[in-house]
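Q: My labmate handed me this sequence with no annotations at all. I'd like to see what the chain might look like in three dimensions before we decide whether it's worth expressing. Could you predict it?
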Amino acid sequence: MDVLGDAALVADAKTKKLYVPVESPLSVTQPLEESFAEISLPQALGLTGTHLLSPYHHTGKGAKTVLAFATALVGTVAAAVLQEPVGRVGRPSLSLPLLELDIVAEVICTLIALCTLLVVLLAEVEGEKAGRHFLMIEEEPLCVPCASPVSFELHSSTKAQEVQAWAAMEPGAPLVPHSFELAGKPPPGHVDIAVRFCGICGSDVHQIEDAWGVASFPLVAGHEIVGEVVAVGDGVTRFAQGDVAAIGVQRSCCGSCVHCDAGDENVCPAITKTYAGPNKDRGGFATMIRYPAGWVFAVPAGLAPESVGPLMCAGITTYSPLKRHATRGDRVGIVGIGGLGHLALQFGRAMGLEVYALSRTADKEAEARGFGASGFVNTEDATQLAALAGSFDVILLTASGRAPLDPYLALLKPRGKLVCVSLPDKEERSQLYLHSAVIFERALVGSYLGPHADYAEMLEMARDHGVRPQVELAPLSQINAMLERVRAGKARYRVVLQM
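A: Here is what I predict for the chain of 499 residues:
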């Protein structure tokens, strides 16, 4: 399978920029005036070009001339000061009475001044040939165009870049500002993305708490990422600088096992995730992320960038199992009307399914019907459950934490499927009475993320059928408060951070 497809989506993405770079008045590409008559005081003092104390990368020729003459003037004054007071009428009075030098000293000092002028001019000529200037330095400029902490200009520099992030320094700790460096340009097959939006997922909370025992600290979480490509590594053809792109949970797969060959990369034994893992990778709670281009996806024109992040996690997690296990016209129950469930209702409606919302929260009924539910079932009401026994083709279990399986299996038709997509804490255990499954040949199925090809399909369906996550947009500075909101189950229905 070619994981570098999607040319049409790339073309769409190029038409929708997240921002337009601002031309700073201190742009390093700004040319300086060549005319000596128009030299300003800072230029005359050598504060243009990459001279010492200079923020610019170009030197005005007039400034060089002034520097040369200023140096010669210093030598001339020195000569005058050091000359002997011979007492002749009309001789200059600039002398040091304590010094008694003959006329030879005056001649020597004058020669020194002339030699100094010659050296400066020769240095400038040689510097022009070599592309450098007298007194030029190669260090970073002392003054640069002002920019926000989260802005990145398009770059292809080989210099290391400092990335600002929020990290948990130990399990369960509040997130604190944290920085790290990305060395040089992206390696072959990778891209650098300036993060503009990043969603908060329930699994981010689990990882920060190390509830699954696989986190590494300091931990920079976040895997619902939307941003702008700012640099591309060698061999990358699907993306260019300025493209709008999105990242989800999966970072890579082996690409050569039987599962990858079959297009089931999401169950590859060598799968890696956006952050943590064996390489201690960092996620999207940061100003920039470096990522394998094969698992970066173009954002179709027509999708608001702030809504795309949740689609890359909750969207693919619900779209893929509905696509695989349900058929148009099937009755499908969605258990849990939260971050995943509200998107499952919308995708189910778009696929032509008869979707029911199953929730223990009765006040979600109106919203559930607005998302596309044909019916609503209060799972705390045994009468309602009994009335629908044996009537569903598929039930998608999105509720987090431990869930009772037998009551949901009882709602299925013979050979119906209970598909589970949620991941409870490592210590949580579910119980199953096998009679619920065996006698009517019902199946208990797991589903994890989705194959590579499903991402583009899912984004297209979201665009074409108006599937939109309901988000609470918050600034990055409120990240800890928003994490607590997700932890408490109060978000309606996804939280997205704006960088």
